[in-house]
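chain below, 186 aa
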Amino acid sequence: MEKLALLSVSDKQGLVEFATALVKTHGYRLLSTGGTAKLLAERGLPVTEVGAHTGFPEIMEGRVKTLHPKIHGGLLCRRDKPDHLAQARQNDISLIDLVVVNLYPFEATVAKAHVEFEEAIENIDIGGPSMLRSAAKNHDSVTVVCDPTDYERVLAAMAEPEALKAVRRALALKVFQRTASYDAAI
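prediction:
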């Protein structure tokens, strides 16, 4: 069965190495957005743009790209529920097994001297927190990473299913803490 990873990051530190391991060592297919997809493709990794996956283009200057049932259905589908799996098949929704998202740099943007209100508004991430929360809610089946410092931890845990389950739970907690902190900053 094909494993699908969705990568969409502002902080690209360590991403190429992580994505390379996902593809070459663990057999993942990569799905990505904008600048992240461009970077991965430039480094020779096979990547599918989210718009090609959903059949819906990125619109409104990138404000709408991942807010789509093929993304959130792929994240939220419970693998232990036959009706969820049947609905995914009926709606041509591929299951997403791993999500790597770090958020637009809102805190850094508003910390700049003389930041314009419009710039601050455009640095409020909507799709990122939504994907993170969907993946974290379904952490029994989906690995969710919001911090590049966790890449090695995830790769190490992939070799051991029980270790991966524990890591998924810890990373889900980290996601909910990060999204709460992000919302509080806004």
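Residues 161-185 form the longest helix (25 residues). The longest strand covers residues 3-9.
thats it, cya
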